[in-house]
Amino acid sequence: MSPELQIALSFGAFLLFLACGMSVPFAIAVPGTLYLLMQSGIDGLRGIGLVTWGSMDSFTLTAVPLFVLMAEIMQFSGLSSRIYRGLSRLVCRVPGGLVQTNIVGCALFAAITGSSVATAASIGGVALPQLLRRGYDPRLAAGSLAAGGTLGILFPPSVALIIYGSLTDTSIARLFVAAVIPGLMLTLMFMLYVGAYAMLRPGATPPEPPLISLREFREALVDVVPFVLLIGGTMGSMYFGLVTPVEAATAGCIFATILAVLLGDLTFDRLLQALRRCVLIVGNLLFIIYAAFIFAYAIDTSGMGEVLTGWIVGLHLTRGEFFIALFILYTALGCLVESVGMIVITVPLLHPVLAQYGISTVWFGVILVMYIELGQISPPIGINLFVIQSIWTGVLRDVVLGTMPFHVIMFVLLLILSVWPDFVLWLPGRM
Fold first, then answer.
1. Could you read off the pLDDT of 186-198 as tens digits, one per residue?
2. Under 8 Å between Cβ of 375 and 382
3. So where are the chain's domains?
4. In degrees, to the nearest 5, what angle opens at C-alpha 24 toward C-alphas 352 and 60?
5. What pLDDT, on a 0 to 100 scale, did the predictor assign at position 2?
6. Would you tell me how many other CB atoms lie within 10 Å of the CB of residue 415?
7. What separation in angstroms does the CA of 406 have from each of 91, 117, 409, 423?
8. Is pTM, for the whole model, over 0.90?
9. Helical axes 116-133 vs 98-113, angle rounded to 10°
10. What is the pLDDT of residue 337?
């Protein structure tokens, strides 16, 4: 059996296992193990012990449970409600009203948690009932929350970027900093769309009363400023080289806990719930990463990476044509495969190819996360669609239709970042 057919069968088995409902880690590890057996028989399994130790013995991955714990503390303490309340007062007069608050609130909360699902669930649970009660367009409201939630894996600290960096040996700090400008651009483009929609269809976004006193303005700042300082301190310390991502995550956990005690409703029982939830999430993530290393080991030992690289180079694709091929690949995968699965299956295969085209791994990491964002709001398995659907009583079709304009905006930003990569690489180049 040729190596090409073997890898095709392994990838087909991965998709089949996912379609049958198998858990993502097993759906990745089983085809990888089968591929090892097809290549070298039982002898091919002897290296799995070293892979097991090497994949988990990573200082970089220590940041994952710390950032996840920070997100869970913020969520279980009810601080997401406080963030949304403060922002709703500050941006209520911007065209689009509380829908603009959804976008800004998701961006701010995403920069704290690094989780799209946590962002969509936390902000959506607070915002959607208010929006529907006040007469906002249901599709616009649901779409803004589902799409805004995707900012959770673009703004640092991003778990997706940490996993990508660990697989490609790319600086996590540089990946975090590289994602800042694209994240701000995407947030601004979302807000411009909402503003234009509100002006063209005034009935879709009822006007909100302005702040009527200095006291209300001060209370709104008290709700928002501590979290801005938390984000600025965490990211700024990494940007200036004062701390590593792991140290920044540790400090973020400490300060998030202090804020949760002082400004939120964090009790010992809720802290235990946050810890339990963190263990479940991190256990799943690390299992997926471990499975990915088994798959990458199988690819490496078979030499399939070099074969694939040679095949792609032999096609004599231009850089632009290669980008188009990536666009088609990830758009299709985004509709079928869960976000972390997209990273761990494709990155070991594509990483050697990037050097042949002179593509920066930092730039590609941000582009990959953008594709994953699209996957999170693409039917039939876009997880943010189901998160928002679980919060309200409408039909899933309305959530999907509400997110379609945000799809187009993401495609436009992907084109901009492909034509002008300096939007991604400028800040890391100044570190």
1. 989 998 998 888 8
2. yes
3. 3-429
4. 55
5. 63
6. 12
7. 20, 17, 5, 20
8. no
9. 160
10. 60
